[in-house]
Every structure is written in C-alpha cells, then in structure tokens.
Structure to design on (558 residues):
C-alpha cells in the first residue's frame, strides 16, 4: 500500500483529502462523538485518500488534532496533522513534533496560524515565537537529525533521533492588491526552498487565480511540488460568516454572495447549487492538473459523496466551461498574468496590463519616507562588512566594557532613536533591514519575520486594521526597483536571549540572525537560504519556451 507521500510525489492520480475540524471539549463530548463518527465514515470510504485535521482553527481553543487523528491513522487512513505557531513557542512545537513522530504521524501541514480568538477568561495572548518558515526549517532539521554531531565528533544516537516528516505548507494568491499577491508568491517560493514538499491552496473562488498559481510554480521550477486545490462547500450561513471577514484570508465577492443568496431562497436552501459549485471546483483542479483536491466545509459522508458523485458525472472537457464560469474576484483584483480570452485562464506569455504598467512606473510610494531612506543609508554604510565605517564602528564597540550593550552613550542613542522612529521593542535581534525598516514586533500582530501571513484584507492586517508591514515593505523596495528581493535572506529565527541587548553590537559581532544561516547545517546539495529572486522577465521567458505538454501552457491547448 502506497503512502500519501509516495502518491503525491508520483502525481499519477488526482487525490482527495477532507478537512476535519476538531471540537472543543473531551473526546467523549457530544460534538466530538459526531466528529468521530464522521471520521469513521471517512476511513471506510475508498474515495477519500487522506484526512486533514485542524489545529485550533480560527484561533479557537479545541481538542488536539492528535486525539482525533489516532483512530484514523491506526485504522489505516493517511492523516495530515496541522501544526501552527500561534499557541506554542519553538520548544513546544518541537515537543509536539517529537510526539507526532513517536505516534506514527509523518504528514504535517506547517502554518503560522490564525490569531487567537476568545477563550477562557477572554482572548488568549498569541505566541508566534517562530512563523511557518521557521517551523518548516525546524522540521527539516529534525528530519536531518537535531543531534547529529559536529565535524570530527561522534554521535551514535543521531540516526535514532531523526524524524521522517512529509511537510507541507499553505499558500494563497486570492488577494486584491499587487503588494499582497507578489509577496505571497515570494513566500510560497521561500516555503518550498525551506522544505515544503506539498502545497495546499487557501479557499478561493476564481479559476483564473488557481491557474495562475500552478503556472507560477511551474515557471519557478517547482512544478514537481504537488499543489492541492481547495474546494469548500458553502451554504448561506457560511457565506454570511465569511462576508463578515471572520476567517482571515477567505473572501466572498459581491457577485458570489448575491448568487448564493438567490439560490438559498430555493426549496432546498441552495444545497444543490453549493454541491455543484464544490464539484465544479474539483473538476477545474483536475483539469488544471493539480495533484488533488482538498474538501472543506463538509460535515457528513452524504454531503461528501454528493460532491464527488456530481464531479464524476461531468464529461472530461466540462471543466473548461466551469473555469470560465467560476470567476468571482473582488473589485479591481490584481492578476499576475494577462487573461487568455479564449479560455478565461492565464496567458503565461505576458503579464497583466496593470502589472506591466506598474513594473515600469516606479513612483514614489508614500511608504518610502525620508526616514526610511536615511535609515537605509546609515545602515548600509555602518553595518556592511569591509566598509570603512564598519571597521570604525566595530573598533568602538570592541572597546566597550559591556560587549552586549556597547558604549553607554551609543546604547542610549540607539534605544531612543529606534523607539521614536520604528517603535522598537528592544529585541536585540533586529529585523528592520529585512523588512525595509519596519519593525515586526511593534507593527505586526504576528511578528512575521519571513514574509506576510495569509490573513490580510485589502492590504490591511487582519488584527489591527493597519497596512500590512510586508505590503508596505514591498512598496518601499519597489520604489528602488528591488521588490523581487523582498525575501532574499536566510530564514529569520529570532534569538530571544538577545532581548534587551544592543542590536547594533549584535549585528557588528555576528550574534544576531544575520550570521546564523541554516545553510551551515544543511546536508550537501541543499541550500535553504539561497533563494533565487522572482524576476518577471526571466519568468516570461521560461514560460514562452516551455514545452506544450506542461501545465504552464493553458491546459485547454493540450
């Protein structure tokens, strides 16, 4: 019997996974019993290839996914366990990962996670010690063996402490603005570089955007990484719930909301319409040659089989018409590629007209402030090794009585100036140069240091309703023509032991994350920190020369 890993990598079959949302309460609670009953039916269904179990979905406190996953795994069905960073620090995540490995769970979906919602005594304090990129890097290290020896040393126990995780990640391009979409694509690339072996797309209702995602992955040389499409079973209450923007990153356009309301007024409350919509999405994913479909919003085996049976009733070419039909973007939504007017999908030989104009008109962004440009100039002059000012600064800090704080006067200047200009929280492991001089601790609710989370709404943070720092960073770099280099740095794993110390001293003496690249510990042939920037010109050239039997060419032409 083949594992999920083997089948996804092989990509010869279109696989079906079902999302199982955990419940609040004990495994013996009424709701948990109903969920377990559904899980048992999923195990028994030959149409289902794996079950995906959430980790405190929506930021709500719920039963551990492992509690629901054990009976499914032990019954012989493949399980993907969601592991998110919102509730546990890196030690807790490592501990959880060791337990998963010990219990026989090898398929993990690494996420940053939703911001915590209300729970006991009110809203919980989030953790976000590391993010999805940091988690991917850590899980990959666990696969290599945390306890492997240094050069010249022996460690007979190293092999026994290796895990065998098959780790995936989530991505989305269902965003409204360019400064949301492009950073998400760059982060997708970073996730794959950092160890993601499969990708599950976020919920979205736009076939052209789905096609853009798989075309982008192929253009960047990631066509071998399985991409799984997300088909969600809607209903009138779910549509209204999503319209309130309660679930970060999930958007229902006005047009789709109107259609849903109209069909919901029918005798069956829209059940047939919503079932067919989910089935059509699966058919589109199959036609676009996704590796599989991920079904969410399903709570009974009857609903599930109705969707799958409906999808099987379609003719092989019907998906092409569905792709023209399921196009529900929000107003003025950004597309990377131009539209192929014959198919309604992406024309990968050229960029969208709006993006083409945008790439060549580097207007002064309101985010490219004078303080930003001055800060960048000062930083590049003083903290660039080999520069004369770098040598001068290092000599001054070398003579300081306290090497972790530096000269007292400079420490006061550092603290006051960074607090006033950037809202600095004195973490000592500064990411300002990584995010165009925007502080992730003071200006990002999730302290995201390796790219944006998936929860922005029209460019704004899902929590604080302010402009996302990664969108602002993109705009700043775009003004300089460097926006494609937004994530051209090794994964940032913040060192908490440096908190309260001088980040200037730490940068000069190599104590911060800038000199701690995972490349130093990766096996031969792996370079997780060496990311190739996404350059539109080379990408279009790649697409233009791609053989006709690959997915970068419109599947309708195959």
């Amino acid at each position: 019997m083949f594992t999920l890993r083997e089948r996804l990598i092989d990509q010869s079959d279109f696989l079906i996974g079902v999302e199982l949302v955990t419940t609040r309460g004990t495994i013996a609670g009424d709701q948990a019993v109903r969920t377990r009953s559904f899980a048992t039916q999923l195990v028994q269904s030959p149409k289902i290839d794996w079950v995906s179990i959430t980790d405190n979905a929506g930021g709500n406190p719920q039963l551990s996914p492992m509690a629901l996953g054990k009976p499914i795994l032990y019954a012989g069905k493949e399980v993907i366990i969601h592991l998110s960073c919102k509730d546990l620090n890196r030690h807790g995540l490592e501990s959880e990962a060791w337990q998963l490995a010990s219990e026989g769970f090898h398929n993990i979906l690494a996420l940053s996670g939703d911001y915590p919602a209300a729970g006991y005594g009110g809203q919980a304090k989030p953790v976000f010690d590391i993010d999805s990129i940091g988690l991917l890097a850590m899980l990959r290290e666990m696969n290599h063996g945390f306890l492997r020896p240094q050069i010249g040393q022996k460690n007979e126990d190293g092999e026994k402490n290796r895990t065998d995780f098959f780790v995936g990640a989530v991505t989305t391009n269902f965003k409204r603005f360019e400064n949301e979409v492009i950073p998400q694509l760059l982060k997708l690339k970073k996730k794959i570089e950092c160890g993601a072996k499969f990708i599950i797309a976020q919920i979205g209702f736009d076939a052209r955007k789905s096609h853009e995602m798989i075309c982008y992955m192929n253009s960047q040389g990631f066509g071998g990484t399985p991409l799984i499409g997300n088909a969600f079973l809607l209903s009138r209450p779910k549509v209204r719930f999503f319209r309130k923007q309660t679930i970060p990153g999930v958007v229902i356009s006005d047009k789709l909301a109107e259609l849903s309301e109209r069909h919901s007024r029918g005798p069956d409350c829209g059940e047939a319409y919503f079932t067919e919509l989910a089935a059509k999405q699966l058919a589109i994913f199959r036609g676009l040659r996704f590796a599989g479909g991920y079904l969410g919003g399903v709570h009974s085996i009857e609903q599930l089989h109705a969707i799958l049976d409906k999808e099987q009733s379609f003719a092989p070419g019907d998906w092409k018409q569905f792709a023209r039909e399921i196009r529900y973007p929000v107003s003025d939504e950004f597309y990377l590629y131009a539209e192929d007017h014959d198919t309604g999908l992406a024309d990968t030989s050229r960029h969208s007209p709006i993006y083409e104009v945008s790439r060549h008109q580097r207007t002064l962004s309101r985010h490219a402030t004078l303080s930003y440009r001055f800060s960048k100039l000062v930083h590049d002059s003083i903290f660039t090794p080999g520069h004369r000012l770098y040598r001068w600064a290092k000599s001054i800090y070398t003579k300081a009585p306290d090497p972790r704080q530096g000269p007292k006067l400079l420490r006061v200047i550092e603290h006051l100036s960074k607090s006033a200009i950037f809202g600095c929280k004195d973490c000592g492991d500064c990411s300002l140069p990584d995010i165009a001089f925007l502080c992730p601790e003071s200006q990002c609710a999730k302290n995201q240091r390796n790219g944006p989370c998936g929860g922005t709404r029209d460019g704004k943070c899902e929590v604080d309703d302010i402009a996302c720092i990664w969108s602002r960073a993109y705009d700043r770099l775009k003004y300089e023509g460097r926006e494609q280099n937004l994530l051209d740095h090794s994964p940032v794993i913040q060192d908490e032991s440096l908190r309260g110390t001088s980040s200037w001293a730490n940068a000069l003496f190599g104590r911060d994350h800038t000199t701690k690249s995972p490349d130093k510990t990766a096996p031969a042939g792996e370079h997780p920190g060496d990311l190739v920037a996404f350059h539109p010109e080379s990408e279009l050239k790649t697409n233009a020369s791609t053989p006709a039997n690959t997915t970068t060419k419109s599947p309708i032409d195959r």
